[in-house]
Amino acid sequence: MLMGQDFDTSAVHAGREDFLELGVHAAPLDFSSTYPIPDLEEGTASLDALAHGAADAPQKIYSRLNQPTVSRFEGALAKLEGAEHAVAYASGMAALTAVLLALRVRHPEDARPHVLALRPIYGGSDHLLDHGMTGCEVEWVSAEEVARKTRPETRLVIAETPANPTLKWIDLEKLAADAQGAPVMVDSTFATPVLQTPIAHGATLVLHSATKFLGGHGDVLAGIVATSDEEWAAALRHVRVITGACMHPMAAYLCLRSMPTLPLRVRRATETATELAEFLGQQPAISAVHYPKADHPLLGKQMLGRGSLISFELAGGYDAASALMKAVRLCTPAVSLGSTDTLIQHPAGLTHHVVPEEERIATGITAGMIRLSVGLESTDDLRRDLAQALAVAATAAPMQANLTKAGTPIAETNPAAQS
Ligand SMILES: Cc1ncc(COP(=O)(O)O)c(C=O)c1O
Fold this sequence. Notes:
By secondary structure, the chain is of the alpha/beta class. The chain has two domains: 7-261, 3-Layer(aba) Sandwich (Aspartate Aminotransferase, domain 2), CATH 3.40.640.10; 262-396, Aspartate Aminotransferase, domain 1 (Alpha-Beta Complex). The chain is built from 15 helices and twelve strands. It has helices at residues 7-13, 19-22, 40-51, 68-81, 92-106, 123-131, 146-149, 172-178, 192-195, 230-243, 249-258, 262-281, 317-327, 357-362, 379-396, and strands at residues 85-89, 114-118, 137-141, 154-160, 184-187, 205-209, 223-227, 286-290, 309-314, 332-333, 343-345, 369-373. The strands form two sheets. A seven-stranded mixed sheet has the order 1-7-6-5-4-2-3, sandwiched between helices. Strands 8-9-12-11-10 form a five-stranded mixed sheet. The radius of gyration is 22 Å and the shape is globular. The two termini are 34 Å apart. The protein binds pyridoxal-5'-phosphate.
């Protein structure tokens, strides 16, 4: 950010610094996959630098090595995160894969770099970490266990806050202290830099699925990692060059186009979510609402707002949840989040289905849980849609049901309370 510039001003102007000089008013969109190299010696030297993680070089070579529209988005997002660098990828999952592979670039001496990871986390991330295909030794821990489980050779601590889908917040300053010098990577997709800038709270790496709020309109698949650590940034680019998991320039253009409205979208959706969380807490068909409390100790310190995601649990369990998904008329029954429209989905059956069932249950992802990503519609219309869908769900589900379709016990229902 420029000295003294407010966040909202930076969101509008980041990535536009050279527009006057270029004589343009919208980001130039370069679709070239390859570039003319009239000077072979300069080309070879540039290729050498880019292939090993340089951000830029005198001669552009090939769009897998670096790409001007993508670089523009990286610079803009880095500014909003208060970071020196950002490296963009084809998706959020490609970004997480790159972070794990970068450990192998940074620590070639490690047979299996040791990583601590906190659950719950997005189901796809859980799947990647649990599978072991990146060659890391991943140990699952709770936030309370990090200090005890961190070893001298721990290379990374991975956390997601707010967590998907329980919306629990992790104290990042405590986490960084507990990691005892091991770098911390925070998936801040749910927060966006509007609500949280993890680097200011001790994180080394911040990851976003740009598919969500940064794209913001449900038409982009992308991921990005921000960091102020030069060596990490170089390793992340090095992995991208090798794996080819690049962000497409059109995706970068769309993210740049969405950036000026990011603060407006996040704040408006947060206001609506706050009202809806209260409404949901009063519904007899709902046994628990998970939405950060107004007096949460991290609110105003680490998180600048309560966010636009709500999870709630239906007293009627799986059957009620399935009926609700069918009954909504305005909310879109779909995975993903952070779009202009409200998205509703069932974590146990969709986003977190790949997580081992016992782990899902242990981390509070019950068969009756629904996740709502509140969009920009009017609060009244959303309230009406949810009310009619809840009425349908209540009649469709036997309230005494305590087994899922798959025969999984549903966790004890909690009293309707915000957590
Ligand atoms: C918090 C979070 N992180 C990462 C991802 C993965 O991102 P992508 O779908 O862009 O690969 C998702 C996807 O839902 C997510 O919700």
